[in-house]
Amino acid sequence: MQNKGSLYAGICPSHYEEITMHKPAIRAKVPERLYIPLSQHIGAPAVSCVEPGYQVKKGTLIGKINGIISANVHASADGTVEKIEKRRTGNGMISDTVVIKTDPAQAETEPVLQPVENITREQIIRKITDAGIVGMGGATFPTQVKLAPPPGKTIDTLIINAAECEPYLTCDYRLMIEHTAEIISGIVLLKKCLGVNRVIIGIEADKPEAAKLLDEQGKIHNIEVFIFSVKYPQGAEKQLIFMSTGRQVPSGGLPMDIGCVVSNVATIYAAYRAVYFNESLTERYITFSGRALKNPRNMIVKTGTLLGDLINENDFSDKPEKIISGGPMMGFSLENLDVPVTKGTSGFLFFSAQDYKKKKEYNCISCGACAFVCPAGLLPSELLRLTENMKYLKAMENNLLDCMECGSCSFVCPAGKQIVQSIKTAKQMARNKLEFNVYCHL
Ligand code: SF4
Ligand code: SF4
């Protein structure tokens, strides 16, 4: 294990991880109905391959991968397809969603261990593709794409993201504690698949128990464990690569451009289950936390379970003033509990009025605090000014798209500016404008 200091920029918000990190995860019940979106990943939505009336088992393919950047989607329990409807997911997107009425009695089948000693790279990628594995740290990028870099891209380092730097979230921590050996086996598989010699696990110093376990069990495979001081957003892909290797992903580039692949621990665990047991990605660890909750905890939840089937009024100690899907920095506000768990859902946070105070907004005082903390080296106040003046293409010239939407700038702004919200809008507008310009020149 090596201590590697901390990110040069970023912020140190209160973390509140101790609320849930020492409690073993509880398995959630199978709900009466599952609402499984066909778009739970970046890229093209899966194409439905079921119809109302179809009987499905846990692991039945219900949405077929649709292109290079896409992923399969599977039923997460036994039941009958009722309908396919449009429904909003936790990140605000509308997706075609397969509604399954679950069977009251679920078949209990023991997973069968598959032979993996002589498994080839192609077979690993096939199994991961079939299982619908995507980045579970929030990015939801289809994993098979990362494992098959295009000709000309040579990967020499696999970086495992165990940082879990967003406050409150401890689902990855519990997974690392409860399934260390499986995560190490998953890392060995991906190492073989990518043909790399170097593997680095990046973890923050507030998770010493998990770091120790990973180090003890990873040593035999030459896996290095790097400990970083606690700072947000240490777990952001580009920042983790820089902290681990000193390499910088070029503006507009990808980790594979500089020989790196980054994968989150939950993704590694899902890949392990896919290869060792032919299991599809149909459940995940999720953190439920926040002051408004009576019993904050981690749960293992089937994809498609509605938040309302996991939490009800009796679970609240205080009126939740704000509900967030994901972490408090990069998560999405929810209006109700009517959203399904997806492959990318890391947590649900319930804030009482005590935690959540809406900031009053004033004029920018040019203090420079936002630029000081920006881990992407941007000038957030300038991007804000351009956005407010609707100069979206000019904002693009100022590296707008390099913004990872970490929210550090908004967090420190003494004028209460919602900088990251403006940047998100600007990105969308700039993309629309570019598409419009291309269309006009056709
Ligand atoms: S400009 Fe983007 S990357 Fe920089 S601090 Fe703000 S949200 Fe984070
Ligand atoms: S932190 Fe806020 S007030 Fe300070 S320069 Fe940035 S936008 Fe302006």
Query: What is the total tally of β strands?
Result: 18
CATH architecture of the domain at 2-21 and 115-277: 3-Layer(aba) Sandwich
Which compounds are bound in this model?
iron/sulfur cluster
Global outline: globular
* Backbone structural class: alpha/beta
Please mark out the parts with pLDDT under 50 across 5 or more consecutive residues, or reply none. 438-442
For CATH, the homologous superfamily of the domain at 2-21 and 115-277 is named as: NADH-ubiquinone oxidoreductase 51kDa subunit
Major sheet, described briefly?
Answer: 6 strands, mixed
Distance between the amino and carboxyl termini: 56 Å
Order of helices and strands: EEEEEEEEEHHEHHEHEHEHEEEEEHHHHH
Assess the beta-strand content as a share of residues.
15-25%
Q: Key terms for this structure?
A:
442 residues; binds iron/sulfur cluster; globular; disordered C terminus; six-stranded mixed beta sheet; alpha/beta; 27% helix; five-stranded parallel beta sheet
